[in-house]
Amino acid sequence: MSTTASQQGLTARAPALASWLDAHAETLDTDATLSGEVVPQLASAGLLRVGVPVELGGTGGTIGDAIDSVADVAAHSFAAAFVLWGQRTFIEYLLQSPNQALRDRLLPALLCGELAGATGLSNAMKYLSAIEPLQIRATDVTTLSSSGVGGGDTSSWRVNGGLPWITNLRKQGFVAAAAVDHEAGGPPSIFAIAHDAPGVHRSDDLDLIGLRGTNTAALQMTDTPLREDDRITDNAPAWLVRVRPAFLGLQCGMSLGLVRRSLDATNEGGPAARSAVADDVAALTDQLASLTTRLKSGVLRGEFVDTPASLFKLRISLAELVHDAATLEVQTGGGRGYLRGLSGVARRQREAAFVPIVTPSLVQLKNQLAAQREQQLKTGTVT
Ligand SMILES: Cc1cc2nc3c(=O)[nH]c(=O)nc-3n(C[C@H](O)[C@H](O)[C@H](O)COP(=O)(O)OP(=O)(O)OC[C@H]3O[C@@H](n4cnc5c(N)ncnc54)[C@H](O)[C@@H]3O)c2cc1C
C-alpha cells in the first residue's frame, strides 16, 4: 500500500512505527492480540515524550506538537491514536498536577512505555456539566491509619465505586486517573489508581465493534486504599477547567488525523470520481487547515481556559468534518470499499462513528452551548 500525504509525517519521523501501524491497523481495530504492544511501540518512536519539558525527561516542544503526534498516528491507526491520547493525556495530568512527588514517581515509567496511563475522566467531565454524579466515593480514614501500626501522618482514604469505560488499561500494568467524591464533603479529588492496588478489579475487555486493541475495559474499586501521594488534585472542578483544553485538544488530534486520511483516500478513486468530488474535497481541506490552526493556537495560548465555548464549537465542527470526509471517502471508494481487506474504508467508517460519542459528546456540547446562549439572552450579554 502506498503512503499518502497524510501519512508522510509519521513515515518521515518514525518509519518503523508507521510501517508497524500500517501492517496492523486492521488487527488493532478488530481484535486484541496486539493490545499489549501499542504503548511500547509508541514509546520506541519517542511519541510519549513530545511536548514534555526536557528537564522532566521529555523531548521538549509544545502541546501543539503533541496534538500533531496524535493526528499523525490517527492517519495510520485510530486505535493506536486513541491509546496515545490516553497515555499522553495522563502524562499531561501529571505535568499539570501540583503533586511533584507523584509526578517524579510515575513519569519515568510512563514516558518509556513501561506503564500505561489511562484517563477515566468522562464521568468527571459529565459531572462538571451536571449530567451525572461522580461514581467513586472516598471515605476518610486518616485517623484510623495514623493511629495504626506504621501509620503515617498524611491523609488517607478508602475508595469504592467504578468506571464503566476506560481505555489503555494495559494488562501488563496501568495507572488510571479517576475523579472521586469525598463523603466528608468538599470539592472532589482526582486520584491516580494503580492496577495492583488492593481492591482494584479490571474487567475483561469490553466486547466492542471496533478499537478492540485499545485495552478498553471497566474498572471497579472495592475498599481501595489511597493516600495523599496518589492525589493528582484536591480540587477537581477548578483543575479540570485548566486541563480541559489539553485533554480536548489531544482528543481532537484524533479527528484531525482521520480527516486527513479520508481526504487523501478520495485521491485513490478513479479520475471521474475524483473530479466529481474535487470541489468538496477542496472545501473540506480548507476547513481542516483553518480548524487545525485555531485548535493548536487556542490550546497553546491558553485561550480556551476562559472561553471553553469556542473549544466546544471547534470540537463540534471537527466531528462534522470527520463525518463529511468519511462520507466522501465512501463515495469515491465505490464497491472496493465494501469488500473486506481491500481498503481501510469500512474501518474508517467505524472510527468516524466513535468521534461524536466520546466525552464530551456532541449532544452534550450542543446542549451546553444552547444553555449558555439561553443564559446570555436572559442577561442580555449575547455576543
Ligand atoms: C470504545 C470506547 C472507549 C472509551 N474510553 C473511555 C476512556 O478512556 N475514558 C473515559 O472516561 N471514558 C471512555 N469512554 C466513554 C465515552 O467517553 C463516553 O462517556 C461514553 O461513550 C458516553 O457515555 P454513555 O454511553 O454512558 O452515555 P449516556 O449517559 O447513555 O448518554 C447518551 C448520550 O447523551 C449524552 N447525555 C446524557 N445526558 C445528557 C444531558 N443531560 N445533557 C446533554 N447530553 C447528555 C451523553 O454525553 C451521551 O452522548 C469510552 C467509550 C467507548 C465507546
TrEMBL record:
It comes from Pandoraea sputorum. This is Acyl-CoA dehydrogenase/oxidase N-terminal domain-containing protein. It holds the Pfam family Acyl-CoA_dh_N. Signal peptide: none annotated. Residues 22-114 form the Acyl-CoA dehydrogenase/oxidase N-terminal domain. GO terms for molecular function: acyl-CoA dehydrogenase activity; flavin adenine dinucleotide binding. It comes from the Bacteria.
